[in-house]
Amino acid sequence: MTRIFNKIAILSLLLVSVKAHAFSLAGPQPPWMLEAAPSSAACYGGPELLNISGPMAIDEEYRFNVPFVTYGVTADFASYFGKRGVDEIREAIELVNELPTLASLNPADYPTRGFRLNHRASALGLTDVKSVAVQNILHFLGLEDPTYWAYAPRNAWIQNGQVLAYYMTVRNFDPDSFQQSPYINGSLYTYNRQGCPYVFPTDPSDRFFARTMPVAARHNGDVQVPGLFVTGLTRDDVGGLRYLYHPKNYNAEPVLPDVADPSGAIAGAGGFGGGGGGGGIYDYAGTGGGFGGGIYDSAIIATNALATVTAGGGGGTTVGGGGVGAGTGNFASNAVRPGMGMINFVESHYDSLLGEFFTPLSINFRDTIVTNGTRRTQRLVRNITAPDIIFDAKDLQGAFGQDPPIVLRGAAGVTYINSDTIDNNQGDDDGPGIVQTGTFTFNTIGSLFVGVVNATGNFLESGQFSELSDAPIWGSFDGSTEDPIVYPQGTNLDDLESLVFSR
User: Fold this and answer.
1) How far is the C-alpha of 367 from the C-alpha of 494, rounded, in Å?
2) Which pLDDT does position 207 carry in this prediction?
3) Positive/negative CA dihedral, 124, 130, 133, 138
4) Using one digit for the tens of pLDDT, what is the confidence trace for 237-248?
5) What are 428-447's pLDDT values in tens digits?
6) DSSP label at 23?
């Protein structure tokens, strides 16, 4: 009997070892991450999870469902990072654009390591602009950080108001079998049992930095170790993208609000948050007699007005007020759609005269849908007034009362549309759905120093240790022997090195 049990145990281990890779899917935070305390939701309120999405189950994924994704940088980003910084964003985009057709992609052709270390950049505490951009591009496309979700507290066992235990689930999935897997690029992950579970590699040598960390492991905009830079996508990164955008992955999905038929008619939908009815070429918060009713930047849209409009229902008397019924378009808005098969980013530029608003862009494409068991296509057009993903730059340091300041390298915000609202059983699923817009903001606060109240000695005085905080110092570097580029423009590398080493 013991021998039989041992054989079963060994067979189980062999089966697990086959699934030695995993990706995680991004989407809006599910209800179990937002429950009232005490609950497992208490484990998702830490600073490392600020501005983060939630892990989706297989078949509840969120993805982009048009063949071209637009991107652009704001004037603030261009002013702070200059032309070199903008070129770094373009190179990050190119890492994804150069992927082959996803149906023919073999994840085994890609390495399990996607990072290298530039030692001088590490000594200077630099964070690579391009690497952080790539991480957040993958997040926008639908991949979550798998190093957080190899194990996730799904529910809590509560007694007398105290959490006694957490019920854990695995929200990482193998790129081949799509089954749950605690492995990431070949490394096995585990978690501690003290307080809220913390996920980490079982190999002690990977505790400081996991050698097989996928590029999608964005750590809320932090590449985890200064001086690291992305060399390319890993096996699990491309495996996740292949699952999301494979042409045999069919999901019930709506179209984006800015999609129309060639005549300009947009399939209407009720406004977000109770705004006016949809159907117009605009979809911003409705006011009396206005178009649409959603959440677009009305200033940008009003500046970049388009010629052809099919009016939707009137807006409410106040923003978010009740609206009239939706307008209709001459095409199938809600339908079963396959994955796009390829990912193509197109840059959206500023208006050369204004220098503030993005230039409108219209893209014609063929949309494939399935109706009554038959595939068919329809001609559609996107009238784009703002990029789908925007790279911005500003000071993100907030004010905190009694807590230490939380320093973020960047903040990512992605908006989603849940397809569950279009089926016959609304409210029963967290997905699938589509990605609508995304903004990643680079923190430009610069250096922060620790000033302890009533401490002896003076700052930078001989013998006094002055510690740089974890504030981001942005740079651009690679595996060459060239000096790193330091931002903002005009920063002198020698001055920075003198500041860091107090000499």
Assistant:
1) 54
2) 76
3) negative
4) 999 999 999 999
5) 678 899 999 999 999 888 77
6) B
